[in-house]
Amino acid sequence: MRHGLRDTEWPGRTQTLRRGPLTWYLDGAHTSSSVQACVRWFRQALHRRPKSGPEVPEVRVLLFNSTGDRDPAPLLKLLRPCQFDYAVFCPNLTEVSSTDNADQQNFMVTLDQVLLRCLEHQQHWSRLDEEAASPDLWSTPGPEAGGPASLLLAPRLPHAHGTSSLVFSCISHALQWISQGRDPDLQTPSSPRDLLAHPVASSGASVLREAAAVHVLVTGSLHLVGGVLKLLDPSLSQ
């Protein structure tokens, strides 16, 4: 039994996928204890990796979502010691397509709702940045102008030593931006302008393209991790 447990593989739990300069760390952690374990695993994995020289740029990216009534703020705070350069938030939707039929319009109502949830995650992360920069500052960012439809990609500029954060409309768009065409198993964005509509996304794209190594932690909702795995390794869903 011990050997069976030792040799068991559970996709999406402490799983690592290496694709050229990108390394994807996947761990569906959605409770305080599981996020703490995730952070320990991720930091240990980074510590064990081959060391690059100080002149070699490496980038750390968080991809996160949390659903239901769970308060995301304590979970996001636990992730701060990982020192991410970018925090990316998106719904648990693999793809988003635009259509005018009634069924899709009903779906878009749900899309607006989950995007608002992602914006709340971004706001929590920005508050943590503000706390780190100045404990006396506690400002609540307001929603972006233009209503939920404008939240398909919502950047918030970082404070000094803070993390740039973005919201994407679906997992596919988030992965395309993170990978910048450097993962052979992910399609290059067909309309780059859609993904580079804001300064944070544009400047971040250059950083990600030039980085010698990109370390991406995907955590939070198990559905998010499952959607990422479906795109990174479609054979798992067959």
From TrEMBL:
The record's keywords, sorted A to Z, are:
ATP-binding, Ligase, Nucleotide-binding
User: Matching Gene3D superfamilies, A to Z?
Assistant: Mur ligase, C-terminal domain
One of the entry's Gene Ontology molecular-function terms is: ATP binding
Q: Which GO terms describe its cellular component?
A: cytosol; mitochondrion
Q: What is this protein called?
A: Folylpolyglutamate synthase
